[in-house]
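Worked example 2:
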Amino acid sequence: MTPWETCAERAERGAIAPLVALLLIPLLGMLALTVDVGFAYGQRRLSQNVADNAALNGAVVVGKRLQAPSETWVKDGDVIAAITAVTSRSSGGYVFGAGLTAEYVRYETNGSLTKVGDVGIGSLCQSDGTSGCIPSTATGVRVLTRITFDTFFAPVLSRTSLSTGARATALNATVTSIRVAPYALWTGERGVGQLQGGGAAPNYLCVDGSGQPQLLTIGGSTVDAPAGSYRSPSGKAYDYSCTGGTSNPITPGTVFTIRSAPNFETPNVSVGNTNWQVGASNFKGFLRIDDPNGLVGAGDYLSDGGIAGGAEDAAMNIISECYRLNCTLVMPVVSYGVADQANGQPALLVTGFASVTVRSVNTQDPTTAQSSYEWRARVENSPIVCCPVDYTYQVTPGSSQLLYTRLYE
């Protein structure tokens, strides 16, 4: 004890230790709240993203079943494969059946949803008595995710783990306002190289009077283009809606070949074209729209969702009907394509719309060319104003109307 230290002062030494001990538990609780709850929130967002994309992928297959020529054209296993394509790319360790379940649902006229089966079980196939068919009344897929993870600091509060999950439902909707062809025109060419199907690549790049490429503008704003594509130095997309490297619109009467046999690909993508950054070597032409924020418009991305090498009877019903009646269809125009890392499908940038009529190919017309479905679209007017369009969740199995796959909840 120093000469000037009183007994009372000496007694107070070390009093801070029990105070720290008392405060340590709430401090650790606050740390647990900050770290573990923050991590849980991140897991919740991941869980919702997986549920959203898995539901969309699964509902796309259900849409194919709704428009397929037979109930066994796509089956329950195809829905599982579509969902697994999402889970295999997620970082949360989600596996179908373990932390992720799905069920088939039907949209009712009052806006409610009715469960009509379980993904992974399916239903009895009426045509051959086998199992594993998609329920005939299903119009969408609901996905439920659940994950449990260890905590970092919460064990001091006797919480060694936390759980979170999410739910998402995707439905197929029927377009009701305009006849949009379930195919797209590829115009992302600038006259460089050879087409996959042979012949010199055409030139649809718009240029100004000095020969400089013009930027794509939608609603007065420019649009970002995929990295590595032919784009402006600032990363903006160019306008591919002109004829012969001019500023004039695509000439009426220009003909595009769609789904050329025997490879079911559209032979209008040039070899090595940096605007086409998709694993597949070419564009099939068939499309599905699965934008969860709304229906397609210029500046949106849609997906190339056709069945490679397979028949798309419902889609071709639209084409053959317009061939017989000589009606006009609206077709999206796309000029950039990348691989969507979320679901593995090609993502195609819609840069505009064109009105077309259907023309025959090699004396075959779409009503008889059931094995190849090769046809030609003749541009009548481009560009035209189009979309978004009206739709309804009432879907008739076997209908030839265009379906949109979108998140419902």
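The CA atoms of residues 65 and 395 lie 12 Å apart. Confidence is low (pLDDT under 50) at residues 289-295, 305-314.
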